Amino acid sequence: MKELQLKELSAVKDEIEELIHAYVQCIDDNRLEEWPEFFTEDCLYQIISRENYERNMPASIIYCDSKGMLKDRVTAHRQANIFEKHVYRHLVSNIRIINQEEDAYTVHTNYAIFQTRLDGYSEVYNVGRYIDTVVFEGGQAKFKEKKAVYDSLVIPTLLVTPI
């Protein structure tokens, strides 16, 4: 019985890891119209400083509490925001399931994001960890909550692209 539970948990972990890797690849490939599909309809996406997160202060750089808000964010990114062209490259590591409550998994993942501008200059853009709540809808892993808790003290340019 225990062996079966370990195999099931291993399969869940594989699906969660694939979700995280597909998520960052979507952003890195600039396929932002697909980005909201990684989330449930009723979701939370937040980019928040480590200091605010640790003090339980809700102030964040980006706060979206539905898939509709995520779609609006992409529309604004494509049509309204003016920013220097750039690309991202995410590195993720230490993906760990921290907790499970019913069908929801709490997952922590370290991330580092490099930004390259069209002039070819690359820099470390943002570093931190994702604190995710992952659920399965129709057998597919999705983010119910995704919090990007950043360690960086300064965000060097306007943050317009999801992280």
From TrEMBL:
Superkingdom assignment: Bacteria
Alphabetized CDD domains for the sequence: ring_hydroxylating_dioxygenases_beta
Annotated coiled-coil segments of the chain: none
Keyword field: Dioxygenase, Oxidoreductase
Family of this protein: Belongs to the bacterial ring-hydroxylating dioxygenase beta subunit family.
Provenance organism: Niallia oryzisoli
A Gene Ontology molecular function term of the record: dioxygenase activity
InterPro entries for this protein: NTF2-like_dom_sf (IPR032710), Rng_hydr_dOase-bsu (IPR000391)
Protein name: Aromatic-ring-hydroxylating dioxygenase subunit beta
Presence of keyword Kinase: no
EC number: 1.14.-.-
Pfam families in the record: Ring_hydroxyl_B (PF00866)
Keyword Oxidoreductase found: yes
